[in-house]
Structure formats: C-alpha cells, structure tokens
Amino acid sequence: MTLENFINEAISPWMREKGPENDIVLSTRIRLARNLTKEKFPIIATEKDLDHLSIKLKEKYNGSNFKEYKNLQYISMSNLTDVEKRVLVEKHLISPYLARTHSTGVLISENEKVSVMINEEDHLRIQMYFPGFQVNNALDAAFSFDDWLEEDLDYAFDAERGYLTSCPTNTGTGMRASVMIHLPALVLTNRIKRMLPAINQLGFVIRGIYGEGTEASGNIFQISNQITLGKSETDISEDLNMIVIQLIEQERHARNNLLKRSKLKLEDKIYRSFGILQNSRIMESKEASTRISDVKLGVDLGIIDGLSQSILNELITLTQPGFLQHYANQVLTIEERDELRAELIRERVQIKN
Question: In angstroms, rounded to a whole number, what is the distance separating the alpha carbons of residues 220 and 183?
Fold first, then answer.
C-alpha cells in the first residue's frame, strides 16, 4: 500500500459498505487523543523532539497489522505536496491542522478505517471510521485498537483527570464521538435552526464536514461531543446515539411531510438540480454540493431511479479542490477547477438502465 492508493480513490474502501441508516447518516467516527509520558507535548516540543517521536512510531508500526486493520502505512507530511495533503484532508484521513504543521505524520490502515495522526495537537490522534450509524461498534473498535497501541506505549494518564491532553477541552476521556449526517429536509423546512440550541445544551456541537471552523455544505453536518471531562465514554456515546436517533426521526418526518404536502415542488427542485448536474459546463463548489444534496435526497426517496448512493458520496469528495487538482495532475485556477468539476459530475451522474 502506497500514498497513491490513499489519494487516487475519492472514497475509502469502508465507505462502499452499507451501514445502518446510511440514507441519512453517512459515517461514524471515534477520535481518541493520547499523549506519551516522558515526551514533551507537541505544543511545547522542539522540532527535534517531534522528529524523534515520529521516527520511533514509524519504525514500530509501519507495515504492522491489527485484526482487520492491515498494513499500517506511515506517511510523513514533509514528503507531501500541498495538493496531496489537501486530498488526505478531504478524505478525512488527516486534519487541516496536521496538514499545516511540520514534523508530523500519519499511520493509515489499508482499509482506511483507521488513521493515527502523529504530533498533531497531541502525540496521537486515533481515528476510527465506520459506515452509517454505528457509534457503539466504532467505539468498541477504537478501544480495541487503542488497547493494542497501549501494550507498548505508556500513555500520560492521571487517576483524577483522565487522559492528559494539550487542550483542556480534550482532557478526561480524550474522546470525540461524531457522526456525519445528511439533513436536507430539516434545512429545507427551517426546522434545523430550532434544533441547534437544544443540541448545544446537551454538550454537543454541529459543525461542517471538515470539523472545527468549517461551515456545513450540501446539508451535511458533523455532530460531536464538546465535553470529555466528567463523563465516561459510554455516557458520551449514549448521548450521541440519543441525539442522532431523534435527528433521524425528525428528518424522516420532514421528508414525509414534504412528499405529502409539496411533492410536485420537491420533485421539481430535485429534477432541476439533476438536470443542472447532467448538463452544466461550469460548476462552483458551493453549488455542486447543494445540487448533489438535492439529487441524493431524490435517490433516497425513490424519486430518481438508476443512480447509486455511492456515486453521489464519491462526488462529495471528488469535487473538492484538492481532488480536482490531483485528478488533473497540476495546480488549477478557480475557473479551471469549476470547469473540471462540471465535467467530472457530467460523466458520473448518468442514469443506468
């Protein structure tokens, strides 16, 4: 497995699997922040310190296997171009923060279900991904992988405070549990605005698809916990499950109401977006995400037949700036990206008889 394998495909192998409630919940992620004793935390470490740790972890884990997470590959950020880094961000294999920093790297499993960011804000940021709505399964898998690492690594842990992290908001469990969820009907009916305050009061936050500091696009939201101290991992996962179950129910209710009360108007909106995706010669990123969201809703509701969810999920990533430039094998202007984006969408959004 090489870097090319990770950046040539717009969606990870696990994303081709069908998960529970996958018409609404795209993916589930568990992220664990861990630091090592006897090592300076990344925020105060020197470049020499960070390089030493990166080399140590590369030598220990590069090419290793754990259960279905085969052939972990170490990739150094210093060896990547800006476009290659951006592609890994767009696939959620690394964070925007890791892409901007030096003396950092990532370990990625062959199936891309696991990525371990090294020397981000913490020594280790372990990410475990599952398709659809699978918080408990993802949590169990993350714990199992974390235990495997801890057999040879000594984590910084305090009996009262829990896992010690660079940012106080991660201290405690060090865990962020999140789901990526598609809520077009709640957005269309403006009901999402009334739900956001209630979610925030429960200690959870809604962000864009690339996490902190990003806005939601294409009606896709990332919901994750804000509190890690004073709550157990089980408590956090149960709260997230409760919130997501309610959002799924509300989204289904909103979709059914739209079909009952405004079916013609809804079909018109979906088919207009479908026609634009099939025929446009220029497509800006924001419009592409909106149109893809409309068509995805049409597929999920059975309004559009012969178009697979996987194609639309692929387009969400494939139409991002990094992937477009990687596909073209050159740096593109905004205008050139808009033209290539439209071309790639036209090629893929075709009905199969």
Answer: 6
How long is the chain? 353
pLDDT digits (tens, 9 = 90+) for 302-353: 999 988 888 888 898 889 999 999 989 999 999 999 999 999 999 998 766 5
Pick from 335, 25, 2: which is nearest to 178 by CA? 25
The alpha-carbon radius of gyration of the chain (Å, integer) is 21
The answer to whether the pTM exceeds 0.85 is yes
The rounded distance, in Å, linking the Cα atoms of 64 and 36 is 20
Q: Give the per-residue pLDDT at 212.
A: 55
At residue 271, what is the residue type? Y
Supply the DSSP string of 89-129, one letter for each residue.
HHTTSS-HHHHH-SS-EEEE-TTSSEEEEESSSSSEEEEEE
Q: State the average pLDDT over residues 224-235.
A: 85
Tokens 């992290």 belong to residue: 165
Q: Lay out the sheet containing 114-118: strands in order across.
A: 73-76, 105-108, 114-118, 124-131, 25-34, 175-182, 220-225, 204-207
DSSP β-bridge partners for residue 172: 163
